[in-house]
Structure formats: C-alpha cells, structure tokens
Amino acid sequence: MIDVNKYIIKLLERNNEVTLPGVGGLYLSRTQTKLHHDNDTLYPATVSVTFNPFRLSDDGELRDEIAREEDLVKHLAEYEVQKFIIRIKQGLSRYQQFELPGIGVLMSDSMSNIRFKTASDFILNKANFGLAELIAKPSEPHKDSLAQEKKIIYRESEKGEKSVWKWLLVSLFIIIIISLLILLGVQYFLQKVQ
Q1: How far apart are CA 24 and CA 93, in angstroms?
Q2: DSSP element (H, E) containing 66
Q3: What's the angle, vertex CA 167, arms to CA 164 and CA 171, rounded to 5?
C-alpha cells in the first residue's frame, strides 16, 4: 500500500499547497518572526496548514507526484489517490474525523462540513524546530556611554548651526554686492542718457 500522506507532505513542502480531490485543499500558512512590544516577547516564525473545503477539483499534482516517485503509470497512481480519498470520506462519515499523520486531522460536523486542525507536532520548517518564544527585557544603558552620546549629538548639532549661519551670511553678502553693482550700473546708465 502506498503512503499517500508522504506525498502530501512533499507537495506542501514544494508547492505550499495540495488538493485532495473531492475533499478540499491544504495550504501552508506562514507567520513571520514577531516582537510583541506589550510583553517584550519574541515569537519565532511558524508554519501551519490551513484547509479550503471549496477546492474540490483535481489538479492532478498528487497523482503526478505518486506516479513519478513510485514509477507508476498515471491511471494506477490515480487509482491510489482515489482509494485514499475513499478512506478519508469513510473516516469522516463513520468517525467524524480522519487523521493525516504528521499533518493534522480532518473533522466533519453533523452537516458534513469539513474542518481541519493542524497537528501539534507538524514541523515543516526544521530550522525553527524547538524554538520557543523569547522574553526580552531592555537593559539600562551605561551612564558614561549615554553622556558621550549626548555630547556627540550636541557637537554635531552645534556644527550644523554654524554651517547654516555661515551660508546665510555668505548669501546675504552676495546679494548686497549684486544690489550695489546693479545700483551703480543704473546710475552710470542714467548719467550717460542725460
């Protein structure tokens, strides 16, 4: 018997999604590393599986993956997928749940609505395995370093103010010289005209 579950995990790793024909679609849901400022806690990135009960049509990816990996013709791989889907539907009908080992549990209610719960041991991102949230408390800066930083900031702002005043005075001087030259030019022109 072919372990279809193994190929579901492979497709989730590679494509971030897999369709279970007639049942629904499984998708990877990723969260980024987060820092909550309220309680100064750093939460690592996580990966979980979500379920879409409305994606019922077969995209053929699961069949093709099984055919490729098990070296089967496509219609035999399709037969294996259909056997697996029948097992899922029987489990949901009889026990209102079907476990996908290492991924999660499909559950149905009295109205035959299918829900999914990710397994607590689902680990796709091996790099984050075992990482728990980290509580971070800011440390108090050393008083000497704080004093130096303020001194540096003060010097830079003082230097900036001097630079602004310097350019302002130079600009004013240039405007005065240009104005005098224009006045002299106008007086010279008026004397020639008379």
Answers
A1: 15
A2: helix 61-70
A3: 140
Residues 62-93 pLDDT 10s = 889 999 989 989 999 999 999 999 998 999 88
Tokens for 186, please give them: 């106008």
Three-state helix/strand/coil letters over 102-169 = CCEEEEECCCCCEEEEECCCCCCCHHHCCCCCEECCCCCCCHHHHHHHHHHHHHHHHHHHHHHHHHHH
The pTM assigned to this predicted structure is: 0.58
Question: What's the token pair of residue 159?
Answer: 């230097």
Q: Give yes or no for a contact between 83 and 98, defined as CB atoms under 8 angstroms apart.
A: no
pLDDT tens-digit map of 119-178:
776 666 555 555 565 566 666 666 555 555 555 555 555 556 667 788 888 999 999 999
Distance in angstroms (rounded) separating the CA atoms of residues 20 and 24: 5
Q: Distances in Å between the alpha carbon of 49 and those of 22, 42, 43, 106, 117?
A: 18, 22, 18, 11, 8
